[in-house]
Amino acid sequence: MIKPTLRWGSLTPIRQVRRIIIHHPGAVRYSYLQVHNQHRGQGWSGAGYNYYLQKNHEYYELRGLNVGAHAANNNSDSLGVCVEGNYDVEHIDEELFLRFVQEVRKLMRQHGLTANDVYRHSDVGNTSCPGRNFPWARFKRLIGQTEEVKSIVYGPKEKEVIYVKAGDFQWASGKERFEQILNRHGNSNEQEAYKNDELTVSDAFGVLAKGVLAEPSQTVPDTHKEAWEDLTKRGVFNGKNPNHPITRAQQATVAKRIEDGM
């Protein structure tokens, strides 16, 4: 953490930290010094945030444990933690996101807080901050669930976190099947991340969940249309759910109907 030398007005210590409030500055590029100068220009004591993470991964203590000016009527018992960017118009970089998760988790441990004590600025004020594209649900899981945090491991010589990727699975015979599900149900970002060996384990499970929950198509492929219509007319099939899987018990019924000349 960097504690820069800045000119401050009067500051008041926080008596007890009870909450953390998450922010973005609403600008794609905006340094801690720009924030500080802007807020001083507004007549404040200086930067309103307590802590600030820049896109270059430099993490600054601004007001620290002094009362901030980041969320009107909600500053006296909270820490305002901000990550550089405008997440109404852009998506947060994965490494920056994971670094932000780690810094927020440190603050939670220091002050005995849980994920339930961490809020968006928009939860307490009339704003979209920290941005409509900020992955809030995933953020809350990562700061609150030990199972998810176990997916973040540290290399012996590395300062930043490494997130376990789908490519690290011991796939055995399941890799080809996963790729089929990904190609059919994954979005373009998930497909591109997998191609670049950047798809995380949690997102891989999300793809699998979409595959499990997806409703199979009711359209019969042209290759099978004639046979499907013929067997439906004969009563071998009932004409429903052409793309659902068939169990061995159902297959036995189909074979019996064919033997009976249906």
Architecture overview:
- By secondary structure, the chain is of the alpha/beta class.
- The chain has three domains: about 20-150, Peptidoglycan recognition protein-like (Lysozyme-like); about 165-215, no CATH class; about 225-260, no CATH class.
- The chain contains ten helices and seven strands.
- It has helices at about 30-40, 95-110, 120-125, 135-145, 145-150, 175-185, 190-195, 200-215, 220-235, 250-260, and strands at about 20-25, 50-55, 60, 80-85, 120, 150-155, 160-165.
- The strands form two sheets. A five-stranded mixed sheet has the order 3-2-4-1-5. Strands 6-7 form a two-stranded antiparallel sheet.
- A hairpin with a 5-residue loop joins strand 2 and strand 3.
- About 25% of the residues are buried.
Features:
about 10% strand; PGRP_domain_met/bac; five-stranded mixed β-sheet; Peptidoglycan recognition protein family domain-containing protein; elongated; Lysozyme-like; PGRP; Amidase/PGRP_sf; alpha/beta
Short structural summary:
By secondary structure, this protein is α/β, with parallel strands linked by helices.
Write the layout of secondary structure elements.
Blueprint: E1 19-23, H1 32-41, E2 51-53, E3 59-61, E4 78-83, H2 94-111, E5 118-120, H3 121-124, H4 136-144, H5 146-149, E6 152-153, E7 162-163, H6 175-185, H7 188-195, H8 201-213, H9 222-233, H10 248-259
Parallel strand pairs: 1-4, 1-5, 2-4
Antiparallel strand pairs: 2-3, 6-7
Helix pairs in contact: 6-8
Protein name: Peptidoglycan recognition protein family domain-containing protein
Family: Belongs to the N-acetylmuramoyl-L-alanine amidase 2 family.
Domain Peptidoglycan recognition protein family: 2-125
